[in-house]
Amino acid sequence: MSKIQALGLDVGSTTVKMVGLDAEGEMAWHFLEQAEPLLENQIARFLERARNVTGPLDGIPLVATGYGRGLVNQATRTVTEITCHARGIYRELGHGGTLVDIGGQDSKVIGISPQGKVIDFTMNDKCAAGTGRFLENTASRLKVSLDRMGPEALSVSDEVSISSTCTVFAESEVISLIAHGVSIASILRGLHRSLVKRMVSMILTVGLTPPLMLSGGVAQNPAIRQMLEEETGQKIILPHYPQLMGACGAALFALDA
């Protein structure tokens, strides 16, 4: 295995990700787990796993990003997730455009220049209705696994309109629809459409500069991808590891050191 020269740790609200880069900036390994309540313990375990793979970490720079980046006491520095996602996606795809990152706790739309710099961004971190949490809550209520939500939503052509802009009220709306005999698949399609329309509103705030790119765990949902393409008229471009873009960007900043 190539000698690791830099580490990136993305402590998100839903998942924790870590990558190791070699001297050329290529990813040698990565770890990904669901975020635990005691993040400090989980961070310590990630660092121990890195030692087991890489050997002593002394002298290897570590940059932390994400919701819990301030908890990484071992970090050389911390960088915002907006900057790290832009750096990570630019490294892999090699061009600018508009990046949509739908995370568990917040969602971001980032305008990236042809040189890979952040031009503008907008962020939704005040309401869960435009985030992955919106889908998680409804998946739990409907007894549908997260990985089945997208395919189920795409299995029907009819969809119901979910008018509530609050996750709590949307859940009540879903309960009412079920009581009126509306199919689960149609409800799921409507829920995905509702989330996508919120994302399109954010995209228009920043300004849509093609191509349209996706990062974050929700990027793996086929219904989100298809509906974003329908609503924007743009083909979605995905990196190989959508969930790792923040950690990769952080590691690239570490490699600069």
Textual characterization of the structure:
This protein has helices at 39-54, 81-93, 132-142, 146-154, 167-179, 184-206, 222-232, 245-256; strands at residues 6-11, 15-21, 27-34, 62-65, 77-78, 97-102, 107-112, 118-124, 212-215, 236-237. The mean pLDDT is 91. The chain is globular, with a radius of gyration of 19 Å. It is 42% helix and 20% strand. Strand 2 and strand 3 form a beta hairpin. The two termini are 22 Å apart. The longest helix has 23 residues, at 184-206. By secondary structure, it is of the alpha/beta class. Strands 3-2-1-4-5 form a 5-stranded mixed β-sheet. It has a 5-stranded mixed β-sheet with strand order 8-7-6-9-10.
Tag the structure with descriptive keywords.
10 strands; 257 residues; alpha/beta; Nucleotidyltransferase, domain 5; 5-stranded mixed sheet
Order of helices and strands: EEEHEEHEEEHHHHEHEH
Broad shape: globular
Largest sheet properties = 5 strands, mixed
In helices, the fraction of residues equals 40-55%
Taking the alpha carbons of the first and last residues, their distance comes to 22 Å
CATH C-level name of the domain at 6-86 and 244-256: Alpha Beta
Gyration radius, to the nearest Å?
Answer: 19 Å
CATH third-level topology of the domain at 6-86 and 244-256:
Nucleotidyltransferase, domain 5
- Count of runs of 4 or more consecutive helical residues: 8
